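During the reporting period the student researcher (J.K.) took over the structure-prediction task from the postdoctoral fellow and processed the backlog of single-chain submissions. One of the processed entries is reproduced below for the supervisory committee.
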Amino acid sequence: MRRVLAAVLVAGLGAAAAAAAQKPRPAPRPAPPAAPAVPAPTTLGRICSTAWGACPLPATIAPGTPCYCWAPPNWWLPGVARELPPRGPWDPWPVIR
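J.K. obtained the following structure tokens:
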């Protein structure tokens, strides 16, 4: 009986191995599409440029718009909104004469 059981087991394993060997492998998956190229931003942001320095502004403020920077103790310094990096000649830290 043991010999018959062993023969059936060996035959079953051989048949399973043969079936697995004949089974075609699935085709490899194609590579995912490349992500679309995102253009680099032309500006880093906006600043309010004053005669005493600069302060950050929201990007929604248009360049050339009058703006103010707050300085302690309670000073509001007038300036003009500019882009970063600046386009054209511009000194971010003008010298007060």
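The committee noted the following: The beta strands are 45-50, 53-57, 66-71, 75-84.
J.K. will present the remaining backlog at the next meeting.
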